[in-house]
Amino acid sequence: MSQIILAGIFGLLFGFILHKSGASNPQHIINMLRLKDFRLAKIILLSIGFSSLLLFVLSSLGVIDAHFSVKTAYVGVIVGGLIFGIGWAISGFCPGTSVAAIGAGGKDAFIFIGGGLIGAFLFMLVYGSIKNTALFDKLFGGKATLANTGVEKYTTLIENVPASYVAGGIALLFIALAFALPEKLED
Amino acid sequence: MEFTMWSAFRKKEWSWKASGLLLGLAFLITAAVVKPIGVSTQFVILDGIIWNGISNKLVVKDETAKKGYASTNAYLNKSGGKYAKNIAKPLNYSFVFVIAMIAGGLLSFITESKKDIPIERNTPKVWKDNYGDSHLKRYIFVFIGGIFVLFGARLAGGCSSGHMMSGMMQTSMSGYLFAIATFSAAIPVAKIIYRK
User: Fold this and answer.
1) Are A95 and B153 in contact (CB under 8 A)?
2) Contacts of B168 in chain A (CB under 8 A)
3) Better pLDDT: B13 or A126
């Protein structure tokens, strides 16, 4: 039961922050992808860098006991990502931002979700006939990370350097890039 | 102090720094307390709930399955009936999380200052600049976009939140691959269809 209450609080906060960041506005997504407005790219880079840095440093210090959940890397991640990218550019929405946007009354977000339910349904129908194809061939050993998560079932690709250094180095690179990018480009 | 807190709360859009730090905290705290954020799976769960409502044989109890549920659909049946179980019991963490996100968007919208420049909520300006004022045309394209996004996300096993944000936060290879793939397709497509 407490999990459900947490889901309610965390979901509310995430939807709220996502909307306040402007990510739920397709105008900003499309202009980022047109390489005209980097505000959202700066937000994405800063949030990944900041969360990753804290996640690995606080975990290594034992301050938090993080629930790592690493997804498998396979050919379909790339193919699916390419298909995702086409729809993302056309619509200006991703699944998460569309959900926050319907809360804020976006009509196009509602229609996006309608299309999304159809897309997910089509995948449910075809999955049985593609599940044994090369699309699901693993890459990098499957559930792999660059920094050591301390979880035995996940493969670590950079083994000889402490995890906080690996993740921290990448995180600082992301944060530096976030600050280096201009907010807007002139036409 | 109270006044500035309240005006920050009501502000339509936060600065990129505030947005990035708070979004980062949201991804960190959820991973520290429960599990990393992911959204696109819940489209499958909602489909399953609707489908199961029409034909109640889609998801059945199965003692032999790892999660206690099985489905006639191969996708819902995978991972020991994990999705089948979440369809049978929609009151679970991940589904409630996504439903609560709607309330978060709503809370943000109803409390925001209406003095700022209004944001178009039906059709973005960049669409109008290229394709005119017809909402219908935008709705058709956004619907097709939705089909591509969720089909792609399911094939990839995650979306911007699960793969890109939560994934790269954990330095997962799957996250980097997904991010590279999505941007490689999205940037040229956006440049071609939105020239103005």
Assistant:
1) yes
2) 48, 52, 174
3) A126
